[in-house]
Amino acid sequence: MIDLVINYLDSDKFFSLLQASLLFSVGFLAASLLSRATFKICLKRFSPHHASLSRRLVYWLVLALFIASGLKQLGFNLGVLLGAAGVLSVAIGFASQTSVSNLISGLFLIGERPFQIGDTIRVGDTTGEILSIDLLSVKLRTFDNLFVRIPNESLIKTEVTNLTRFPIRRLDLKIGVSYKENISQVRQVLLQVAEQNPLSLDEPNPVFQFLSFADSSLDLQFSVWTRKENYRELRTSLLEEIKVAFDLQGIEIPFPQRDLNLSKDTVALLQQNRHDKT
Question: Is residue 141, in this structure, part of any structural domain at all?
Fold first, then answer.
């Protein structure tokens, strides 16, 4: 009789363990499938960033439900586990206040949506393309292929410039020409260069501005619009074409110059010193 009871209990534990293992396996599979389906659906309506967050949320939510069911099948008291998890969460929260601050800041960034994956942003002296937006930090790849992690709290407190938020950007070139040059001719040359460059947009029109009379040059600004993906290429090509056009038209780009005026006494003293040496 005792052997039958022991065999019954062993078989009961075995079936409970088998059912829990089945729930765990099905949970992993269901979480993966549902998270992928959620990502595809959200990607059609929302940004890649929000689609990625929705996929993670669905994955961990479904997986947590199946894990809870499996633990209950094994005889664990979920109320005790949830209480212990609450106490542990409070302890971790006190121990990692910075992480909590980054988490809350990440929620603000998600709601505000100042940028998304693929945008190029400038934070302080760092400029790069956004690789991922997580709850604790934002990952960037700089133009020289460096990986940069910026905590969300820093992004909330710092001025962030989104360089690719809008489809077009304006390129501002500061140019100095000699005082002897004809400003109208310089304007026409610059407009012709912009018109012939295929990366320059006709609308909005290029803008020519006379900034100031500098010490050694007439300071000008020439602004040209282009699509955001052509910005760096346009900057290089336009500078090269302006230099070639100025050389062809004989327009001088001056370098800093200083005029030195000597008094008669100084000139006489210099001549006397030269005479003494000879």
Answer: yes
How far is the C-alpha of 111 from the C-alpha of 202, rounded, in Å? 36
Indicate yes or no: pTM above 0.85. Answer: no
Owning domain of residue 30: 2-75
Among 6-10, 115-119, 167-171, whose mean pLDDT is lowest?
6-10
Task: Tell which of 162, 192, 225 closes a domain.
Answer: 162
Overall number of domains in the chain: 3
**241-254 pLDDT tens trace:** 999 999 999 999 88
Is 24 among the domain residues? yes
Buried b (16+ CB within 10 A) or exposed e, 8-47: eeeeeeeeeeeebeebbeebeeebeebbeebbeebeeeeb
3-state secondary structure of 278: coil
At residue 42 the predicted structure's pLDDT band, cuts being 50, 70 and 90, is confident
- Residue 84 in domain: no
Quick one: pLDDT at residue 38? Answer: 79
